[in-house]
Amino acid sequence: MSLNLGRFFRACNPRYTLNISKPEDLQYYIDFAPVRGSNVIRELKRTITFSDHQPTCQLFTGHIGCGKSTELSRLKTELEAEKFHVVYFESSQDLDMADVDISDILLAIARQVSQSLENSGVCLQPKRFQGILKSAANLLNTEITSFRSNIPVVGDIGVSQDSEGFSLAFGIGEITAKAKDSRDVRSLLRQHLEPRVNNIIEVINQELITPAQQQLQQRGQGGLVVIIDNLDRIDNKAKFGIRTQPEYLFVDRGEQLNKLLCHVIYTIPLILTFSNDKEAVSNRFGSPAKLLPMVRVKERDGSDCEPGINLLRQMVLARAFPELNETERLREIPKLFDSTSTLDYLCQMSGGHVRNLLILLFNCLQKDDPPFTRTMIERVISERRNELGKAITSDEWELLRQVSQQKTVRGEEEYQTLLRSLFVFEYCDHDGSWFDLNPVLEGAKDFDKD
Known about the structure:
- This protein is α/β, with parallel strands linked by helices.
- The chain has helices spanning 5-11, 23-26, 40-49, 68-81, 102-119, 127-147, 168-181, 183-193, 197-218, 245-252, 254-257, 278-285, 306-320, 326-330, 340-349, 354-367, 374-389, 394-406, 411-419, 445-448; strands at 57-62, 84-90, 223-229, 238-240, 243-244, 263-267, 290-292, 424-429, 432-437.
- The strands form 3 sheets. A 5-stranded parallel beta sheet has the order 2-3-6-1-7, sandwiched between helices. A two-stranded antiparallel ribbon has the order 4-5. It has a two-stranded antiparallel ribbon with strand order 8-9.
- Helix 3 packs parallel to helix 4 and helix 5 (102-119) packs antiparallel against helix 7.
- The longest helix has 22 residues, at 197-218.
- It is globular and about 65 Å long.
- It starts with a helix and ends with a helix.
- The model is unreliable at 142-164 (pLDDT under 50).
């Protein structure tokens, strides 16, 4: 079979997230659950499907780039097959991830949920919510024109003066778009909304979620599920005093995020699983965050994890030959690499981090056409090693040597230094989790120094 190089190039773009509901994306999907140490998506799904009509709130976390969004897309597709109405959205589309508050998240949820319900024909009469938006719009119109004439006046906000033809999603979107783009507008909006957060939650439940649940059940559907992705990307900066933004949102204000009367899944920053507030987070939401670990390329004892390498091999081959089955793809390896061992070497050096694997492969494609030689792969890995190594201090190299020997990472400081920068990855097996060095760094001269 001939290789469609353009399609292969586009399929390897590390910035693209698979949408499993699309057949053209589903053909690229590989289920890594057998070599991640647990089937987290199955656990999230069972919690929802077995809870009947009782609302649930679950937390999901993992390294940025480890495949969370793809797995959540798979969860959405599977829940929809069970007749749930699923609203999935990336919070970064609505929020400034450097500056997030509870009212921002609630407005984003209300906008996305109302838009999805409107599109599916669910009838909503959000009169109280319409009043909240009108008061916010009036405040912004007055305050903005009074102190800063170069900010666009929010007089064109789509909050109609009567309920007929009113689109809640459009009205919220007009306001939140202004808030996302301007710190001043965001500050004014929060001053108005934050004291009313409990009221906003009540209105969301009474005017959006409860009537939606009733109408969905009348249609024979399982209920409403809201998946908020990308909240794990919020900045870890101080919010109030010594509290960081993740601590403030999911610990101090976590109880409010847990009050929506439908099934909700929030992605949260991985650092919270290393925080002293880890148990406080679990208590707020009723259970610990579900972790999506790396794909194992090595076992705890350092031996190769053949099943993990085999699945990563299939991930690469599926991007090139999606129409073929697993056995047929293996016969096409010579069209991509000079040997199977070269492909396996690439998979091993990714550390089981799926976006890292795509980054390395994409870099190869930027340089030349396949088949790729071992020399080409080593060149790309060397460049990647140099990029990562520039940010590592002598103290951090010492920490990396300790992790390599002890397989542990403890506390927020080590997390910030090692995991957030993708210097270290977390793996899981039946005995629990352990940590190991990003394989790209193993060949660095500074790592080998005593």
